[in-house]
Amino acid sequence: KMTQQMRDLQLAQARKPPGPSSPNAAKRLYRNLSGKFRVNYTSFDEGSLVGRGEKEKLRKSYLFQSNAALFEAVELQDLDRVQEMLKHYSPEELDLNTPNSEGLLPLDIAIMTNNAPIARALLQAGAKESPHFVSLESRSLHLSTLVREAEQRVNELMAQVVNEAPNADCSDKEKQLKAWEWRFRLYKRMKAGFEHARVPDAPSSVHLSVASSSSLQVTFWEPLSVNSAVVTKYKVEWSCSPTFSPLLGEAVIDKLKDLHFTIQGLVSGTAYHIRVSAYNMKGWGPPQASTPPFAIPSNWREYDGRAPRRRGQAEALDHLLGQVKTVHQHCICHEPCKNQPQSRKHSVSKSLKHLFHPGSKFLKTLKRGLYLTAIFYKDDNILVTHEDQIPVVEIDDTYSCLLMQDFLWLTKVSCMWDEILWLRQCVTVSQSSCSCILQTRFKMLLAISQMQGLLGIQDLGQVFFEPIKDKQGNILIVTLKEVKTNQTFESVRWVPICKLQTSRKSVSSPEEPTALDTLLISLQDKLAYHQRSSHALSPGLYLGYLKLCSAVDQIRVLVPEQLPNILCHVKIRSNPNISREEWEWLQKMASVEEPVPTEPEADRPQNPLFQELQVAIKELMTLVNIPLQEAKDFRLYSQEVLDFGDQVSFLLLLPPSDDVCTAPGQNNPYTPRSGFLTLPLQIFELGEEG
Question: Among 177, 196, 215, where does a domain finish?
Answer without folding.
Answer: 196
